[in-house]
Amino acid sequence: MITCEEFFAEFGDYLENQVSEEVRREMELHLSQCRTCTVLYDSSCKTVKLVTDSSSFELPQSVSDAVVKRIMGRLRSDPQSSK
Amino acid sequence: MMAAALRPTENPIGYTRLVGNRAERRGRVDTSDKIEFESPIDSPSSFQNRLGFVPALVRAQALLPRLMEAQASLEKATRLRHGDLSRLQKERILLAVAGDRRDLYAIAEHCAVLSALGEPDVRIDALLVDSDDTALPEADLAALRFCRKLARVPHAVCQEDIVSLRAIGLSDEAILEAAVTAALAIYRGTISTALRVEPEFPLRPTVRVQCGLPQNEGQIAPDTGRRSHTEKGPYLASPFLSSESFAPFATLYQTHGFIPNFFRSQSLRPDLLEAEIEAVGKILQPEDILTRVQKESILLAVSAVNLNSYCVAVHSNILRGRGVAAEEGDQIAVDHHLSALSDSDKALVDCAIKLGARPAEFSSRDVDELRTWNFTEEQILESIAVVALNNFSNFLQMGLGFEPDFEVPAAFQRSIVKPFAPPGTPMAGDPAISTLVTAIADPDAELVAQAQAGNLDAFEKLVRRNTQSVFRALVAILGDTDEAQDVMQEVFLSAFKHIARFEGRSKVSTWFASIARNAAFQHIRKRKDTESLDSAGPGEDGDFRPRQVRAWQDDPEQSYSKAQVRKLVEKGILQLSPTYRTVLILRDIEQLSTDEVARRLGLSVPTVKTRLFRGRLMLRETLSPYFSKSTGGTLQ
Predict the structure, then answer these.
(1) How confident is the model at residue B131 (pLDDT cuts 50, 70, 90)?
(2) Please, which residues 29-48 of chain A have a Cβ atom closer than 8 Å to chain B?
(3) Which phi and psi (to 5°) does residue B628 adopt?
(4) For residues B536 and B116, what is the distance between their CA atoms, to the nearest angstrom?
(5) How many angstroms separate the CA atoms of B405 and B164, rounded?
(6) Which CATH fold topology does B436-526 show?
(7) A51 and B459: CB-CB below 8 Å?
(8) Residue B319 pLDDT
(9) pLDDT tens digits for B262-309?
(10) Lowest mean pLDDT among A71-80, B59-68, B198-207, B299-308
(11) Which of A36, A48, A68 sits opposite B549 (nearest CB)?
(12) Contact check, Cβ <8 Å, A68/B481
């Protein structure tokens, strides 16, 4: 079975689902027998999910509208001003 | 024997004449027809001895004899000697590639040389039409097919091609020689396209029938072949060659500060390596005509358009070593029109890109355009040789999968502005190719065209579609949402200002993101922020090790409202250094592919992967106190 060190070396690619079938089997075997790495794997997956589901850094529509209005107002009043 | 059989029928005409006419106007005599070699360089005698004539293509570069020497060096090692392939085999490859690229000058020359070497006419005709009806041994046919593929779809060449060549009996040395020969054909084709050298031997009647000029001739075709994206190069064996025993490597150390894998990976054939390094030295090293920064800018921009991320990484890093900021190099690669290059250098790069990536569109008007920017004939000629060398390198790298792995001497590291980022992976086999190719089919293309015609409603639609991604790109670098909102206006006004120059080389969304990135960097410079995208930050450059090992709750989102989770995530991300923040936001929030992130940030895919992994682990550390089973549920 691979060591924790070896697991960690492949962990980034494993999270991205970019390891070969052989490596995947080794990783899963390790996970089935190592609590620490299981915690690491589980919490990392949850971190990624939290980030992707969080709608972080999304401008509220009202703010976005105001920004667009300001830009277009400037261009419409004087399209050459930015040239 | 062959020398007696070969006599060019006419003097070349074309760009050399333009050089001559113009030179005469300026009181200089055209040397193209009566070259006298004051110092007896080896090049003409090599040609004279082996071919019986000095090709017009070489003589056409008489304004700068070192360019003639560079080409002669490549030809002497590759074409004019028996190596692991015979001269006949290599002339066939040169003819096949020239035929594919409709390079009439080269077709005429290689037909004549093949004929003089005893090749039957029927086989020459078969080679020109890509027919397998050549009655050649299977290994020769396989080598020809490989070289045609390399010249047509270099991105599609893969390890399997090499394996099948080996299976048929070709040695790695012979495969390397075949690939270098195909790359030489590309080099010659680039020069002949630019200099418009007329064929100096009669064209065979079959050639006249076959050679139309397809619109996209010479462009690198998209990857349509089946291949494994996980395979790694280099595809050929490359035994260690020391700079102590191999003098050209010592020279490279002195001139470049490191030995790119491009050269290391060709160690099976030191004779070819020596010639390539000599050509590089003669074309790139002198700064009496164009500066090295001008040449590297050309190499970077043309490699980017050719989708060769290996060469992009190499030339970005060389530019950094020359004091050009990393983000400026990135900008030249993404869209040089928005870079800080002078207007004349932008025109020089424009011309180079057209010659290197869209040769069918190249014409004498492009050369005239450079003259209007007051480039001298020598500068124009040298830029052409730089593009030829670039394409030689781009095709060879893509064909043989040279890996981007450098050994950087400390002296070189000290000489560069920022820490050396690992260079990009070769584009060969990279899914980013398809992403880039589909950029042509940008759904926003119609709106862009309307906006370019001055339609403000169309531009407003583009702004609305890109507001969120621009905002995130700004937050990623600035690390401050309020500041990002402030800079947004600058970004879109700048985009409007430059939209006429947008050529559709990337999706417009990528272009907006690139402007946002530039604006953010300018903003950072104003606030004298020392943070850099390329510096990992104190304590973060080494291996990051997780410390929180408490198990998380089964459903961490259950303990908090959506707004609270978002606040925690945003806070955690903003605490990351920009190195990790930019990659994480683009990958996990913008949900771009790893390859797209690499392309947008001008980083290699492995670098993006490493930064993404570490960024995620760091964020996990920050979030663990809130979501672990023992302490979760309390917002502190």
Answers:
(1) low
(2) 36, 39-40, 42-44, 46-48
(3) -75, 160
(4) 61
(5) 26
(6) Rna Polymerase Sigma Factor; Chain: A (1.10.1740)
(7) no
(8) 87
(9) 998 999 999 999 999 999 999 999 999 999 999 999 999 998 888 777
(10) B198-207
(11) A36
(12) no
Set of chain A residues whose Cβ sits within 8 Å of the Cβ of B570: 54, 56-57
Amino acid at site B84: D
- pLDDT value of position B320: 82
Q: Which residues make Cβ contacts (< 8 Å) with residue B560, sequence separation at least 6?
A: B568, B626, B633, B635
Cα A35 to chain centroid distance, Å, stands at 24
Could you give the 3-state DSSP secondary structure of residue B622? helix
The two counts, helices (H) then strands (E), for chain A are: 4, 0
Binary contact (A47, B620; C-beta < 8 A)? yes
Q: Give the DSSP letter of residue B216.
A: T
Stated pTM of the model: 0.56
Q: Does A78 touch chain B (CB under 8 A)?
A: no
**Is A63 in Cβ contact with B489 (below 8 Å)?**
no
Q: Which residues contact A3 (CB under 8 A, 6 or more apart)?
A: none
Classify domain B2-210 at the CATH superfamily level. AhpD-like (1.20.1290.10)
**b/e string for B204-237 if b means 16 or more Cβ within 10 A?**
beebeeeeeeeeebbbbebbeeebeeeeebbbbe
The ipTM assigned to this model is 0.90
Is A39's CB within 8 Å of B463's CB? no
Measured in whole angstroms, how far is the alpha carbon of residue B493 from the centre of its chain? Answer: 31
Which of A12, A13, A71 shows the shortest C-beta gap to B493? A71
Label residue B76 left, alpha or beta by phi (over 0 means left) and psi (-120 to 50 means alpha). Answer: alpha
Residue from the list B489, B566, B584 with its beta carbon closest to the beta carbon of A67: B489
B570-594 b/e (C-beta count within 10 Å ≥ 16 → b): bebbbebbbbbbbbbbbbbbbebeb
Contact A57 B493 (CB under 8 A): no
Beta bridge partners of B552: B628
DSSP E strands: which ranges in B185-292? none
Judge whether B635 and B560 are in contact, CB under 8 Å.
Answer: yes
CA distance B498 to B511: 11
Biggest CA pair distance of chain A: 69
Per the listing, tokens 């006298």 go with B36
The one-letter amino acid at B332? I
Query: What is the enclosing helix (H) or strand (E) of B164?
Result: helix B159-167
Which residue, B63, B82, B81, is CA-closest to B73?
B81
- Which residue blocks in A18-60 are alpha helix, DSSP H? 21-33, 35-53
CATH homologous superfamily of B247-430: AhpD-like (1.20.1290.10)
Mutation target vs B (from A37, A41, A50, A62; most B CBs, 10 A cutoff) = A50
CATH 1.20.1290.10 intervals, chain B: 2-210, 247-430
B303, with CB counted inside 10 A (0-12, 13-18, 19+), is buried
Query: Residue B393: is it exposed, middle or buried by C-beta count within 10 angstroms (0-12/13-18/19+)?
Result: buried
Please state, in angstroms and rounded to a whole number, the distance separating the CA atoms of residues A17 and B509.
27
